[in-house]
Amino acid sequence: MRNISQFAVSLVLLASQVQIPFLGDMTATASSSQAAVGAYEVKLNTNTASAIEVVGQKQPDYDAEVLIPLHAKQADLAAKAAAAKKAAARSKARKVVIQTVLAVQIAGSHADWMRAAGIAESDFGYVDYIIDHESGWGVTKSNYGGSGAYGLGQALPAGKMAKFGSDYLTNPVTQLRWANAYAVGSFGSWANAYNHWIARHSW
């Protein structure tokens, strides 16, 4: 009898604190109570001293559902920001190099450059014609077609001129030393190189 009385008192207490109806339809299911905001799961224990046990709704797993996705998103954003910063730094470095190369002031005339490169004055006319048609005497001229040819004589690739000086990207004398070696080595003389250019429009 005491258990029944305790059970009735517990139900009254439960109704006043949890605010769920129990005097009306006693067939209210757990699913309908769980659908309500702030609903509780109720367990009836008939064989224990505590006849009614109120169990709160299951709380979300904060680490799995909040922290881990948040940290993953933060890491992804940080990686993208770092990549963008790196790309911007590379772009800025390239611009600085280009500006530095274009800012180089070359002293002397074309004849001075050819003379300094060791080209015989009797070949100046041939050299002038070929270089003028290859690059317009543009020391930093790159091939518009994207072939990679570069400089006064349009060396392809530009690195071919490196053995004549580490300043081959900006120094016309270094470039003409390469052109002189190329003309003599490939055609036998500047005159032959000139004749080849007239016939083929390239060398």
Describe this structure in a few short sentences.
The protein is mainly alpha-helical and 203 residues long.
List keywords for this structure.
single chain; 203 residues; mainly alpha; two-stranded antiparallel ribbon; 7 helices
Account of the protein in words:
The chain is mainly alpha-helical. The chain has three domains: 2-55, no CATH class; 59-103; 110-200, no CATH class. 55% of the residues lie in helices and 4% in strands. It has a two-stranded antiparallel ribbon. The protein is rod-shaped and about 120 Å long. The N and C termini lie far apart (116 Å).
Regarding quaternary structure, what we see is: single chain
Number of domains: 3
Termini Cα gap: 116 Å
**Helix percentage range:** 40-55%
Low-confidence stretches: 19-37
Largest sheet: 2 strands, antiparallel
What is the succession of H and E elements? HHEEHHHHH
Structural class: mainly alpha
What is the total tally of β strands? 2
- What fraction strand? under 5%
